[in-house]
Amino acid sequence: MADGIQPQPGIMDIALYQGGASHLDGVGNVLKLSSNENPLGASEAAKEAVTRAALDLHRYPPTDHASLRQAIGDVWGVDPARVFCGVGSGEVLKLLSEAYAGPGDEVVFTEHGFSMYPIYARACGATPVVVPEHERVVDVEAILAACTERTRLVFIANPANPTGTMIGPAEVLKLADGLPTRALLVLDGAYAEYVDGFDAGKALVEARENVVMSRTFSKIYGLGGMRVGWGYGPQAVIDVLNRIRGPFNLSAAALAAAEAAVRDTDHTERCRIENAKWREWMATALAELGVPSDTSTANFILARFTDRTEAEACDDHLRSEGIIVRRVAGYGLPHCLRITVGDESACRRVVHAVAQFKGAA
Ligand SMILES: *Cc1c(COP(=O)(O)O)cnc(C)c1O
Question: Does domain 44-264 have CATH number 3.40.640.10?
């Protein structure tokens, strides 16, 4: 094989991404709370936009995403010229890795960081560098201590997945200020819309040359199936990403859905408020059952059990009740389960099942 067909270095070190399960053998009325999807679904306006797009399926979509970028600019107060649209925020993060890192370079993220970060790092041949967190919170000092002259990218999600915790603007600024000259800070804002009034790093992007923010339509906008995300960064970075993306990376239906969704700010606001209400209710009820969690700023909670055995036994019980949540041993959290905040009935079903498990119902 040595002289045969070989992939680029790093690729065979990638462990396949594990998505949230969506069905259980032999169990009906399944409640899927394993992928942080929006229980209220997409905006009606987005659904109508997709229906309209069906009339023009033979047409290529626009290559410049101008209309979607303008809508994002109008709603989020960002400069549309510095917005980049991708196939999910995943494509934005992947293209950043391909553009800025390669063999011999380092890509830094934290121990409980999103599991796609090591995949992006390895796919471009770079070396992943994993930094400890402090009590399930990103530790800026530890990240800065791990950076070297070879660091090209630092990925942090804020709010973070699967911990649900956040770091404040002073910490983010310290991180951006302290990075080596060739390192780009990537602020993954997949859950940013769940935090009322949070700018997700927009001001920092505008003030500096070394910060990029990514956002997604997969979470609060309820469009995970359409695959749309966006990035906001220095013009030079956006120009680089535009050179390497596919010209027709986003379908016409995806562009139309995302544009309608971002403009439907009433729906977004309703989703944010409902999520906060049921997140607090579920976290409090689980804590009363002896299952605590860190204060979550996202659309899930990270439920902590005594140990791995108890977490897995609870997961088995939830599955027997038709409830699918996420095991997070792969994130270094074997004693935890990540539970997406569903609608009222979903949250009540989870709490009831955990109470049964704990012998309290
Ligand atoms: C869900 C999620 C994303 C979104 O990925 P898409 O490709 O936009 O669907 C990005 N980052 C984190 C941390 C996530 O949890």
Answer: yes
